[in-house]
UniProtKB/TrEMBL annotation:
Protein name: Toll-like receptor 21-1
Bilayer-spanning residue ranges: 743-766
Coiled coil (UniProt feature): none
Highest taxon listed in the record's lineage: Eukaryota
BP GO terms, sorted: inflammatory response; innate immune response; toll-like receptor signaling pathway
Length: 983
């Protein structure tokens, strides 16, 4: 026990871990999607797992109903169900079970039903059922039990039904002793065993036991005490071929109300004389001694002599060849059922053999050799009390005129599963109270108006699986109370215009497996307000165009179930627009096994009340469902779209199914499922994606995470889903690190780029600050159409020159520059920032406007000029205009000598000096300062008057004939009246 306790504790811990780690999916089981309460009903079928604990290890503790079938399980270990304490119903059938350990069902204190049928169990441990205190049903059918251990049922004291048929039990005494303590046992089934007698030790059966089946054993005697079966009400001893009559001598069967001993060696006459069983409770079927009329009449006389009334007489399987008029005349009055099934009757005429049995209510002559039903119009005896007649499973070929005139009040007539080819037009004449008529599985070809003209009260008419081709006008004209008409499995090609007229109450119409090619709306007029079920599957309906004039279902406002499955041989091919218009009450639509090329986005728009839709295998070529195809199906709860070749699962397609609970997507082609689509289904609780090639890639990383954290949706067999290209891997645990590796790579490049920008930006700031600033302001001006305005103004410049200078040099500008260029007869108009800039305007805008409103820009360069940010901007703007527009617009005037070292930090200015003219203000200590200044002003005026457009490249090269250094320019005042260009 210590080791067992340790094992159970280990299992509990492991299971607890599984519950924490597992998603809402199970390795080998499926929760029943139709169960009203979640996590309570499971099926674990057709798995390849041999270990039962492995099959059910991940089930939740809330399980109430569990079925484990068709698995190669051979062994149930101790504590296998210890984690399922709430189990009420456990079914472990059709497995290979051989061994059950003594504590296999430990902790199942709530279990009420246990089914271990169809296994290979040969031995039961005495303590196997110790914890099953509430068990009421136990089945051990079809196993290999030979005996029961003592006390095996001692703990299941609430057991009511015990079934041990089809085993190898031989000792009834052991069985009797085992069940003697079951005070609540009601039913014991021991059929198909090897019992030879009912001998028992000094024990008695429970008083509660009322039903015992001991059929198909090898009983040659009963051998039980006379009182042993005193409380039994149903005793089945059938097919104990060696059981003699004398076995019942002295046996008290006074409480038996159903005694069966067909196919035994019991002589009925002798039995009736020695038994105290009431004859009306005996099943006389299978007693070969009753196959001739003499023995039958003799038995009837004996029964009548005891003044017994018989409610039912079962005479089936007695080999009766024929019945004469007086065969049952001497029998007591039969008020209920007379069963003549499984005999060899070839004719029953007009029931002449029922002479004197006018109170009979039900007659069954199934499984005989009847070939026809004759006309009974001249029959004198009428059986007014007969309400049900069954002639199923015969060889009836024809039903003649007035075949039921002698049974005018029957309510149920079963003529199905015969070979009826001829049904006379008046064969059913007079059956005005008939409610159910079965004519299915015959070979009828034609129906006529008069066939059913008297069946005013008929409610169910089944004509399935005949050879009817056409429904003629008026066929059902008088069937105003008919609610169900089954015409399936025929060869109907069309209906006459009034073929279905008169069916004012029809609720269910089955037309499946016929040859209908169109849906004729006119035939539904009679029952358009009552029809709820219409079955059209397996016909030849096909559409070649999406356009139809009107919906064939327009007037069927009450229709709730519509079946259009499997149209042959081509399928529907096309689903017309507004095909389902008018079906506001439709709840279930079946469209499987069609070959629809395309599902239009508005295909189901009118089915606003639909709850169930199956498109399984209907649209093999529809690989992409159109967005919005299900947009109006807001009440849909179950959708089956299996094997459609779907390759897209998106929110645009499935996002509006807000009430969807069950979604079956198995056998489709999508490799990726959009998580947003699943998250848009708030009530989804069952998702089947078996045989869907979901790729084990980063595209499905979110899907994998969703399945692992979603507590409400069951993903069927998630742990068995393989990776398409790696069959050894599983979808639920494929490696997602590669997805994070990609992200790491992106992070690396992003970080590297950021570091690069942080490193380069300061350099760019120093080297390209003004260029970027210039570009910014030019772009801003362009964006506000300033650029266009400035270019237009440039063609008609307001100023001859814009003077760029530092405020410290303002004295020279005002005393020297301004008088010489604007005064003294000069006609130049200059732009000075302190005088001509627009007040309130951004200073940079003023600078840009001044540069582009002047033909030239004169920079008065000094040491203070070089240190001024605004002066630098002005020369930058002018130089950009110089180089970018190829205009000779910049003049440099040096007020003082500047060495190359002092200019080295001003790359742009040095570049200008290498390309353009510059002037040096004469120094005051030169030989003739007045002449030098006059020459300076003449050269500056000439430069201002010069054309702005640059000369051609050849002329420029010819002009640049001298190379002058910065030091040479310092002697500008003493040279010829010539200014120098530095290449």
């Amino acid at each position: 026990m210590a080791s067992l306790t340790h094992r159970l504790l280990t299992v509990t811990v492991v299971l607890g871990a599984v519950q924490l780690l597992s998603a809402y999916s199970f390795h080998n089981c499926i929760e029943d999607p139709n169960s009203d309460v979640s996590r309570q009903s499971f099926k674990c079928d057709h798995r390849e797992q041999k270990n039962l604990s492995a099959i059910i290890h991940d089930l939740p503790t809330s399980v109430v109903n569990l079925a484990i079938s068709f698995n190669p399980v051979t062994f149930i270990a101790n504590g296998s169900f210890v984690h399922l304490p709430n189990l009420l119903n456990l079914t472990i059938t059709n497995n290979y079970l051989e061994t059950l350990e003594e504590f296999a069902f430990q902790n199942l204190h709530q279990l009420t039903s246990l089914n271990l049928s169809c296994n290979r169990i040969s031995e039961l441990n005495p303590r196997l059922f110790n914890d099953l205190n509430n068990l009421t049903f136990l089945s051990l059918t079809y196993n290999k039990l030979k005996q029961l251990p003592e006390g095996v049922f001692s703990s299941v004291f609430n057991l009511e039904t015990l079934i041990m048929r089809q085993n190898f039990l031989t000792k009834f005494s052991g069985i009797a002793k085992s069940v003697s303590q079951l005070k609540h046992l009601k039913k014991l089934d021991l059929c198909f065993n090897n019992l030879t007698s009912l001998r028992h030790s000094n024990v008695s059966l429970p008083k509660s036991l009322t039903i015992i089946y001991i059929c198909r054993n090898n009983l040659s005697t009963l051998g039980c005490k006379p009182w042993f079966l005193r409380s039994i009400q149903l005793l089945d001893l059938s097919y104990n071929f060696m059981l003699p009559t004398q076995a019942f001598r002295g046996l008290d069967l006074s409480h038996v109300n159903n005694l069966r001993f067909r196919s035994t060696n019991v002589k009925i006459m002798e039995f009736l004389s020695i038994s105290n069983v009431y004859a009306g409770h005996i099943d006389f079927s299978g007693l070969n001694g009753l196959k001739n009329n003499t023995m039958l009449m003799e038995m009837c006389r004996l029964l009548r002599s005891k003044a017994w009334n018989i409610k039912k007489m079962l005479l089936g399987n007695n080999g009766i060849l024929n019945l004469k008029n007086d065969s049952l005349y001497h029998c007591p009055k039969i008020t209920g059922l007379l069963d003549l099934s499984q005999n060899q009757l070839k004719s029953i005429g007009c029931l002449h053999f029922l002479n004197g049995q006018t109170q009979l209510r039900s007659l069954s002559a199934e499984h005989n050799h009847l070939v026809s039903l004759p006309s009974c119009v001249k029959q004198n005896t009428v059986f007014h009390n007969l309400e049900e007649v069954s002639y199923r499973y015969n060889r009836i070929l024809s039903v003649n005129s007035h075949a039921f005139s002698h049974t005018p009040n029957i309510k149920t007539l079963k003529l199905n599963i015969n070979i009826i080819a001829f049904l006379h037009q008046t064969a059913l004449k007079g059956l005005k109270r008939l409610e159910t008529l079965r004519l299915d599985n015959n070979i009828l070809t034609d129906l006529f108006q008069s066939n059913f003209e008297d069946l005013y009260n008929l409610q169910v008419l089944n004509l399935r699986n005949n050879r009817i081709c056409v429904i003629f006008n008026g066929t059902f004209h008088n069937l105003g109370n008919l609610t169900t008409l089954d015409l399936g499995g025929n060869k109907i090609t069309h209906f006459d215009s009034s073929g279905l007229e008169g069916l004012k109450s029809l609720s269910k119409l089955y037309l499946d497996d016929n040859n209908l090619k169109i849906i004729d709306t006119s035939i539904y007029n009679a029952f358009r307000d009552t029809l709820t079920v219409l079955d059209l599957k397996g016909n030849q309906i096909r559409f070649l165009s999406e356009s139809i004039s009107f919906s064939p279902f327009m007037n069927l406002s009450k229709l709730s179930d519509l079946k259009l499955d499997g149209q042959q041989p081509h399928g529907l091919t096309i689903l017309p627009r507004a095909f389902f218009r008018g079906l506001f009450s439709l709840r279930a639509l079946y469209m499987t096994n069609n070959k629809i090329f395309n599902l239009a986005p508005n295909a189901f728009d009118d089915l606003t009340g639909l709850k169930f839709l199956t498109l399984d295998n209907c649209c093999g070529t529809v690989t992409q469902l159109q967005p919005g195809v299900f947009k109006n199906l807001k009440n849909l709860t179950k959708l089956i779209v299996e094997n459609m070749g779907i390759q897209n699962f998106s929110k645009e397609v499935f996002g509006n199914l807000t009430e969807l609970q069950i979604l079956q997507l198995n056998r489709n082609g999508m490799q990726h499922i959009d998580i947003s689509a699943l998250e848009s289904l708030p009530k989804l609780r069952y998702l089947d994606v078996r045989n869907v090639p979901l790729s084990c890639t980063c595209k499905n990383r979110m899907l994998k995470n969703w399945t692992a954290r979603n507590p409400h949706v069951q993903v069927v067999f998630l742990y068995s889903l393989p990776c398409p290209h790696e069959h050894k891997l599983r979808f639920h645990n494929f490696d997602t690190k590669v997805c994070y590796i990609d992200l790491g790579m992106y992070m690396f490049f992003s970080t590297a780029l950021a570091i690069f920008l942080f490193t380069v930006t300061p350099i760019l700031y120093v080297k390209l600050y003004w260029k970027m600033k210039y570009g910014y302001y030019v772009f801003r001006s362009w964006f506000s159409e300033q650029w266009r305005r400035l270019r237009e103004e440039e063609e008609n410049c307001k100023y001859d020159a814009f003077i760029s200078y530092n405020s410290s040099d303002e004295q020279w500008v005002m005393e020297q520059l301004l008088p010489n260029l604007e005064g003294n007869g000069s006609s130049f108009k200059l732009c000075l920032h302190h005088r001509d800039f627009e007040l309130g305007r951004d200073i940079v805008d003023n600078i840009v406007c001044a540069v582009y409103s002047s033909r030239k820009t004169i920079c008065v360069v000094s040491r203070n000029f070089l240190r001024s940010e605004w002066c630098s901007l002005e020369i930058q703007l002018a130089s950009y205009r110089l180089f970018d527009e190829h205009r000779d617009v910049l003049l440099l005037v040096f007020l003082e000598p500047l060495s190359e070292r002092q200019l080295s930090s001003y790359h742009r200015m040095r570049k200008v000096m290498l390309k353009k003219t510059y002037l040096q203000w004469p120094c005051l200590d030169c030989t003739d300062p007045a002449q030098a200044q006059e020459l300076f002003w003449n050269q500056l005026k000439r430069a201002i008057r010069a054309e702005s457009r640059l000369e051609t490249e050849e002329r420029s090269e010819s002009r640049v004939t001298e190379n002058t250094t910065l030091e040479e320019t310092e002697h500008f005042g003493t040279s010829d009246e010539k200014y120098y260009l530095l290449p």
